[in-house]
């Protein structure tokens, strides 16, 4: 990595994966970087002890490894993660038309239709990493080529449901793919068309580090520390004024540049303003439930139980009400069981004892044919929307506020630089939200910031 003409002092607000990933990149360029984290480093990814087992909370599926490879290449590090394919890929989707494993295996009756669906996304795999890691600039030929490929593949459809309708897939397959669009935190009607292509694109490329997701956090922390980044854990920022930070406890810190790795609504509040985030335009939050079972669950690694009715689900979530049936993502690994229940982003304290949580658990058990499984747990814990609201989007939206579909895809130029000396990165900024967007967003901000500093302005 080339050194900067002159090193700057950079303050990064938020020590989640985005803040840490960018901190390592900027420190590698010779900048003096400090990360301020109000709670624990890792943000949504943290280790949680439940009885005798440990969970890595937050991200469970590591997709688009090409983005991770691009990050490693920029940093000049070799891969410490030992990514292993997750058995069963995206999991078994329990549609009203019967269970559908994604990717569909060759032995399944839906295989020919799955092949037709995968074919529709065939021109994209080489371009998507470009879209996730390249500044969205029409002056960049690689970006323009990749955008054109995306436009051709989505055929001008704006939303996931619009694109899916046009494909005329069998109802079971269409339902499973549409359910997966919800992984972006949005109903298929609101998610950009690209999300209907994700199961085809990630296909068998669904991974997890051999030592769990926590290995990603360890790696980022290690690289940041090795490059001299000062990690101030338990140190919240209370006010942002220009390039000055007021920290909890009254300390004042000044930097040449600030990068917010916080949700944009949270940053706006620290700057004394606000950004609109009506409930109807938020991605979903979740109640993440974790249990230690007495013995391994008789379940595949990943099961997906969709809401009974997408329209009712969408109406409830957009109104901030608890839907009668929700999306559940179930992971079973040995004696570990985790269930993520999608919930509206209202910051609600949905504890294990909450009647809605209990009702959803019963519905999930019925759909999976494992009645009483949860009750058999030796120990259990829950991270409700209120937990995600404490350090992320104020309503706990997993991927922040949702942009309209025509602005939510990678084609839309994001405001990575908010003001002179103030940049932003992270899940609420880069469309799509998950690990590829977080890592890709760090690469984009590193590129843009480097170019600005070379040009003498940032
Ligand atoms: C249940 C769940 C499941 C998920 N599943 C997947 C998945 O399978 N695959 C995938 O790719 N992604 C998944 N994600 C998304 C992924 O976890 C996030 O995109 C990623 O962790 C976000 O990182 P971040 O750094 O942008 O934000 P965060 O992790 O929210 O980090 C923000 C940090 O800022 C800190 N902070 C807030 N306010 C202040 C302040 N005033 N001063 C200082 N610090 C502050 C917070 O404490 C926090 O540590 C999932 C997320 C959740 C919650």
TrEMBL record:
UniProt KW keywords: Oxidoreductase
Q: What is this protein called?
A: NAD(P)/FAD-dependent oxidoreductase
InterPro entries listed in its UniProt record: FAD/NAD-bd_sf
Q: Which GO terms describe its molecular function?
A: oxidoreductase activity
What is any Pfam family matched here? NAD_binding_8
- Which SUPFAM superfamilies does the entry mention? FAD/NAD(P)-binding domain (SSF51905)
**What is the annotated signal peptide range for this record?**
none
- On the tree of life, the source organism's domain of life is Bacteria
Q: Which organism is it from?
A: Deinococcus arcticus
